[in-house]
Amino acid sequence: MNGNDVDYAVPAAVPRSRRVRDSGPVGPLWGGRQRSLVQAGCWALAAVLTLVLLVPLLTGQEAGADSPEDAVSRLLGGIADTDPVAIVGSLDPSETDDPDRAAAAYERLGNRLMRAGEVPPADVTAVLAAAESQVDGSVDLTAVATVAALDMDLDGLRLRVEPDPAGLESRARVFLIGGDLDVALDPARLPDAVVGLGRATYSMPLAEGWRRDRTEPIEPFLVTVEVEGRWYVSLEGSADALLAGGRR
């Protein structure tokens, strides 16, 4: 890992006051060995781990999508809109029925799929860390309210669909070939318990800088599955395909 690699994998609490250092990012998120993780997974996982509360909200709403690319677009759009119902409705029903499966797949991705890039502003990082702090399965309402202070916009998303390498008609890979997740933090919308964070913006290219096991460049994609005529994103399938052949 070089000096430009960024670590998003270690959960950290939102600071109550900004800590200032002479240079570099602040807070424990970059402490220790430094493993990097795609920031967007924070919000997706937060939704997955509250499925017991969210699944009833899907009643009467059509889950899945008409095509593999629509399923991925819906998932990423749900992340950008911080819409957990859209996120859950985009995921393979067999995984939403057993949240531990999705959580385990996320953990595998978090341990081995990295993204190197520019360091986001410390205040944006603090909010992302607040979302990821829900990895233990609890629902921290302060963290949820903190994430709500972020405006996220999915800009210029471009996807490429490829058939499943094994020839399964009910599966397809959807590659991210372009687009950015633009993030803006509005401190006026932060809950009263969170102080010391300021206005900040950050843009994350979705298709650039991915590595498996810190070294091997990889083109990012998600695996989609067809269930009863509708398409969904499979976190398990994505983890199996993205991490196949790499170091465990």
Using only C-alpha atoms, the radius of gyration works out to: 17 Å
The helix/strand class is alpha+beta
Order of helices and strands: HHHHHHEHHEEEEEEEH
**Oligomer state of the chains in this structure:** single chain
Q: Report the portion of residues in β strands.
A: 15-25%
User: Which term fits the overall shape?
Assistant: globular
Helix content percent band: 25-40%
State the helix count: 9
Overall mean pLDDT stands at 74
The N- and C-terminal alpha carbons lie at a distance of 17 Å
Number of strands: 8
**Domain tally:** 1
Task: List key phrases describing it.
248 residues; alpha+beta; five-stranded antiparallel beta sheet; three-stranded antiparallel beta sheet; globular
What does this structure look like?
- By secondary structure, the protein is an alpha+beta fold.
- It has one domain (28-243).
- The protein contains nine helices and eight strands.
- The protein has helices at 41-48, 51-54, 68-80, 84-90, 93-96, 99-112, 122-132, 141-147, 235-243; strands at 113-115, 150-163, 171-185, 200-205, 210-212, 216-217, 221-227, 230-234.
- Strands 2, 3, 4, 7 and 8 form a five-stranded antiparallel beta sheet that branches. The protein has a three-stranded antiparallel beta sheet with strand order 1-5-6.
- Helix 7 packs across helix 8 (141-147).
- The longest helix is centred in the middle third of the chain and has 14 residues, at 99-112.
- The radius of gyration is 17 Å and the shape is globular.
